[in-house]
């Protein structure tokens, strides 16, 4: 948390899968907003970094769409207005919260949302070579290993956890844990439920989507036609930057600068 001017909107940053406050893109964005006098909060996923899920937690939760914590944090922030800014999975989490979630006690405080490097086609990553899929999912291994006892308590078998560690892919994680959290029959059913494209029409606050044309994880798909139908929605696509990139040689971040200007 970074304290700022309470009269300005507070900023809540939701990181990408297994991301955290020390992640480079998150630190750059937090610094950009703090220099403008905003209070900045980074919502860490439960069980991330050196933390663990509490064994007292009665609900199976994991590193997927879970908007309850967003709503709780928004309610705790003293500022009257809040801007949500998410990266990748964190961006999807924000869009779900603003359009489909039932946890909306404090949603009226949110005045703008920014969604960067979000996947518009969940199946795109499944078409990538296995070595790339394993590279993307490698961050999940320490996360599940660190929370084995919690997952065991909620009915996830040792074999399931071992499969995640062995395969080291997001798909395997979704197959063994996510669909149990969402109570869906298949991974594809879960992907269909959380697909961001159908949510675009329901966004009711100013929204900015940021993508890069060379993003190896999300692919080139950007649903411009759906975006054009909603006057709240804006979209910017950078030619280069890959996933979570766009930092220049002098250390400046084009995405952070764009977000800061758009929020003024």
From TrEMBL:
GO MF, one annotated term: monoacylglycerol lipase activity
Family affiliation: Belongs to the AB hydrolase superfamily. AB hydrolase 4 family.
InterPro entries documented for this protein: AB_hydrolase_4_sf, AB_hydrolase_fold
Protein name stated in the entry: Uncharacterized protein
Listed SUPFAM superfamilies: alpha/beta-Hydrolases
Species for this entry: Hexamita inflata
């Amino acid at each position: 948390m970074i304290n700022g001017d309470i009269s300005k909107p507070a900023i809540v940053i939701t990181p990408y899968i297994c991301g955290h406050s020390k992640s480079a893109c998150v630190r750059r964005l937090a610094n950009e907003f703090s220099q403008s006098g905003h209070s900045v909060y980074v919502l860490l996923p439960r069980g991330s970094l050196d933390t663990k899920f509490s064994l007292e937690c009665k609900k199976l939760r994991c590193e997927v769409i879970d908007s309850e914590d967003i709503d709780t944090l928004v309610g705790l922030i003293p500022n009257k207005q809040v801007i949500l800014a998410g990266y990748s999975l964190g961006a999807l989490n924000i869009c779900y919260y603003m359009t489909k979630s039932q946890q909306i006690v404090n949603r009226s405080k949110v005045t703008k949302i920014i969604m960067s490097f979000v996947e518009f086609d969940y199946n795109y990553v499944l078409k990538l070579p296995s070595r790339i899929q394993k590279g993307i999912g490698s961050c999940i291994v320490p996360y599940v290993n660190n929370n084995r006892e919690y997952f065991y308590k909620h009915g996830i078998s040792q074999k399931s956890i071992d499969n995640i560690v062995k395969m080291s892919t997001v798909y395997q994680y979704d197959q063994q844990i996510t669909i149990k959290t969402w109570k869906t029959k298949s991974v594809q059913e879960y992907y269909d439920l959380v697909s961001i494209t159908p949510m675009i029409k329901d966004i009711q606050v100013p929204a900015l989507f940021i993508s890069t044309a060379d993003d190896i994880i999300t692919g080139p798909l950007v649903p411009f036609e759906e975006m054009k139908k909603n006057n709240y929605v804006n979209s910017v696509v950078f030619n280069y930057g890959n996933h979570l990139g766009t930092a220049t040689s002098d250390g400046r971040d084009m995405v952070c600068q764009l977000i800061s200007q758009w929020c003024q």
